[in-house]
Amino acid sequence: MSDVAVVRVHAAAAAALALSSLVTLVAFGWPFVFQPGNGFEGTSHSTDAPWFFVLILPLLAAIVLAELNAGGIDAKAIALLGMLSSVGGAMRALSPGVAGLEPSFAIIMLGGRVFGRGFGFVLGCLTLFVGALITGGVGPWLPFQMMAAGWVGFASGSLPRMTGRLEVLALAVLGFFLGLFYGLLMNLWFWPFGVYGDGLSFVPGADALANATNYGRYYLTTSVVWDLGRGVFTFLLILVAGRPLLRALRRVSRRAAFGVPVRFEP
Amino acid sequence: MIVFDRVSVTYAGAASPVLSEVDLTIPEGEMCLVMGRTGSGKSTLLRAINGLVPHFSGGTLRGTVQVDGRKTSSHRPRDLADVVGFVGQDPLSGFVTDNVEDELAYAMESLGVAPSVMRKRVEETLDLLGLADLRGRPLAQLSGGQQQRVAIGSVLTTHPRVLVLDEPTSALDPLAAEDVLATMQRLVHDLGLTVVLAEHRLERVVQFVDRIVHVPGDGSPVVDGPPATMLAGTPIAPPVVELGRAAGWDPLPLTVRDARRRSVALRAELAVVPPPEHGPRVSGEVLATTRNLVLGYPRRPVLEDVSLTVSAGEVVALMGRNGAGKSTLLRGLVGLHRPQSGTIDSPRAGLVPQVPADLLYAASVRSECEMADRDADAPAGTTRALMDRLTDGIDPDTHPRDLSEGQKLTLALAIVLAQRPALLLLDEPTRGLDYTAKQNLVAILHDLVADGHGVVLATHDVELVAEVATRVVVLADGEVVADGAAREVVVSSPAFAPQVAKIMAPQPWLTARDVASALAASRR
Amino acid sequence: MRPHHRITHPRALHPGAWWLWALGLAAAASRTANPVPLVLIIAVTWFVVSARRGDTPWAASYALFFRLALIVIAIHLVFQTLLSGSTQGTTVLFSLPEIPVPDSFGIQLGGDVTLEALLTAFYVALQLAAIFCCIGAANALGSARQLLRYVPAALYEIGIACVIALTFAPQLAGDARRVRDAARLRGGNRGRVRRLGRLAMPMLEGALERSVELAAAMDSRGYGRTTTTDPRARRTTSLLVVAGSLGTCVGVYGLLAGTADSWLGLPMLLVGAALGVLGIASGGRRTGRTRYRPDPWALPELLVVASGLAAAALMFWQVRVDPGVLVLSSSTAVPPVPLLACLGIALALLPAVLAPPLPIAPARVAR
Predict the structure, then answer these.
(1) Within the 171-200 window of chain C, which residues sit less than 8 Å (CB to CB) from chain A?
(2) Count: domains in chain C
(3) How does pLDDT run across B442-490, given as a tens digit for each residue?
(4) Which CATH number fits domain B286-513: 2.130.10.10, 3.40.50.300, 2.60.40.10, 3.40.50.740?
(5) Number of cross-chain residue pairs from A and B with Cβ atoms under 8 Å apart
(6) Class of the A11-34+49-255 domain?
(7) Half-sphere exposure of B109 (CA within 13 A, CB side)
(8) Locate the ABC transporter domain: which residues (chain B) (predicted)?
(9) C 159-188: CB under 8 A from B
(10) Residue B8 β-bridge partners
(11) Nearest-CA residue of chain A relative to C63?
(12) Which of A31, B304, C214, C292 is the right S-S partner for B105, CB 3.0 to 4.6 Å?
């Protein structure tokens, strides 16, 4: 558990988050789970599913954020979200890392860790959004990235309470897997759109296993190197910078007096 | 308008209260100055007015604070937004949007003011603060003074009755500060606002204020009264008042004009006494030379043809307006800028940057000092010893960024000195310093010069120049327009003359202390 | 007629209008694999952007996206060349040396490269490229950042966080320069990681400290004051939102699983989405804020949006009446010209004149 819960995840928000995450997961993983096309019988297009997701995901992301927002985010949390997502987004635009994501990942994860999972989720979404706005790169991939990065922040905020080196190590290991996984998912959203040659592409109507194998091959040939790189970099970054970063975040948490009681005496 | 009734504030986890048993009444339409050292609790006092303490900060408030009949115990800061406008130190960090017009409208949007009213009020505020030319400009492109004016405007649009300003000029250079204070004064006169402000640069404000509240910060009670009586007793006073004290005038003068009219006898008395020398005429080893220096960016030179020599034992003040090339020259001397033509020869220079916090990375003062030793290849403990010599009372376990501005400067100075520079460069060192910290800096600089260091300061602070500089170099548009002994350059210049020089003109006295010791000697 | 209804009155078009126009074009592009309408779409975006782009920093994003589109095409072609199993087509263009890969791996490296395979890959990539160009045009013409002013009220606070982030981001560059200089003053840097840390820590600490001050300023200026907390309205909103996400969930399942009950699919998805939109709308009612000088939404906006929607509508009509011309019978066949679709895309060219011209910025008085 994190130190404070700056953005509370109440029941309705949790439900919306869970359902939207489910849809997003399906949006990523439908080629393996379902045989597409059946629902679209009668039309001549069997690859419509991804387009539906591109349309529906922004709405879902908006719903989750609105519901978390409705729980009441105070000025301190908003200002903090703004500043952190600005730093994260700018790093994303500037940093020379493998995919330019590692420093932002570290900030999302450590922010979620210190200020709670609700905050982590919103921070993840915003960091990617702000990064896209800074670079002028708003596109259909954005909602996918936002949800995935939101999960990253949420997961870090959900780690059990730990202290000292153990905490940093746990976060670093989590960072490795999340970095790897993020790439795996992000390739998935556009993979079905493209044709990359036999045995690498999405085949509409083929069974799930065949597509999974195809994707596996695609992943191994194209992006596994990058994703491993991202995972390793995130791991190292958190291992090296985790302690000072956590300290800085906790310091501001104290300064902003989150959860400090306010008393009036006559 | 503002009533404090037996108010004590204790922050969560603190052993003793920051403020205790404060009784204070500020009537409508008054301009009230809150005085006190950094950390004395004056920020707490100001923030209690609109309820930021304790609603925002946490902690316990005993007693009641009432503004325009509303108690802060039942009104959060946002509920007081249409009664109290609050402006902080650094204008840029309080901005929500990125251009002038949106920023002015932001508070009204939050309060749900009707669009037509909003439009009208924005226009009124633009005119009132002289911002009309800047309306669509990005906030980050404005000068410090303009930014602070926008910050004031952004709280005025809700038509508050009270304006609270927490050191509105301490992050600004003196010219910007003057700009803001002049605006303030106009507001008090035109709008009948009640203004409460904290301000270090007493010499700029005492003449406008109706009341001074002194927060001693050592546990003794908060006192208030009219400026002349309050300043007679406090350790902090502007140079005019110090001169008045030295000359034994009663009541004390608050403005230069006032003092000038009273000083006829004093000038007559001192006409035959030569003012003391500030620093040596002949100086030691040459520490830095520049010859026909051109510095800057391709096709945009900032410095043009600057030839300058600085020797040990000198304190050179670089003066001139913003953008005249002062900082660029310092950066060149320390090797951050490569000359485009001409030469720089200053092998042993160390620079304390304008924002000393930029030099600080570690989590505690102790480890910061250890890191600095390693960085400078100095024996362990060097920086710590330097810091302890420069000032006492810095707890080595504090986070460096939690130190006061004065302490940060001292720590940064210690870090730079650990590299054993012969020539010390300081960029705008008095920004954000309170009176005590400034006195401390003056003492440190005197010591360093006595040790054989040379010092170059880029500053707008004429009182500091009057106290420490032996030589003044005035830069304008990248060129040296005046270079000479401090007294010769400063006294004759309307822009750079310190208050005492203005009062005593044409006699070249620079500080109240010089006058006081001369008086003491002549009356003995 | 008020001046902002005139298409000749110089002003900036509402950014939302540009995005809707671009989305319409993108939707049209998503319906066809025929290179004729796809190339037309790219040409239309190019032309409109050149005609109505301002000198804003984001105006450069069209070039960025155009380059991205070229990269997409290049990647597709390279992949097809290196990995093609050449099961399609017989026109061998050239042969690459084949690298033996175990059969179980299921792919073939190198070998014959056929015209048919390359063309197929090119057409698929062209569709993606066309969509990229549409998005690039939207980014360049209507800044997504300006759109932030129009976030639904339920997302207002989050929108403010974005505004803060975007305001602060450019200042970070200046901070970075200052901090880097300071680090050089201190000397003693060993190693890149340490140097990066010395750059990052003061910047991050500065940003964090600023956030506390900013929050105090926001609080004193009435942030969140007009937000009412009526528990009943809250419950309604939550109910709508949860029902909406549940509906979407079920709808997606229905669509993908292709169950017999047709109501489980698209209709359910639409109902879910509608409930979600309702939820967001109802969540927005709790705030009593007002908006300062909103951009007008007038005739030119409507015309621009209509032209984008016309492109989509005519494309969908084409799908209904004669889907055959939207796909190629074989990759080497000469592409047919789908008249209806091309007419729609031509309509989308009109914003080049329908959108009002941008005012010329007044000469700034030098400071």
Answers:
(1) 172-173, 193, 197, 200
(2) 1
(3) 999 998 988 889 999 998 888 899 989 999 999 988 899 999 888 888 8
(4) 3.40.50.300
(5) 35
(6) mainly alpha
(7) 19
(8) 4-243, 288-502
(9) 160, 163-164, 166-167, 170-171, 178-179, 181-182, 184-188
(10) B62
(11) A136
(12) C292
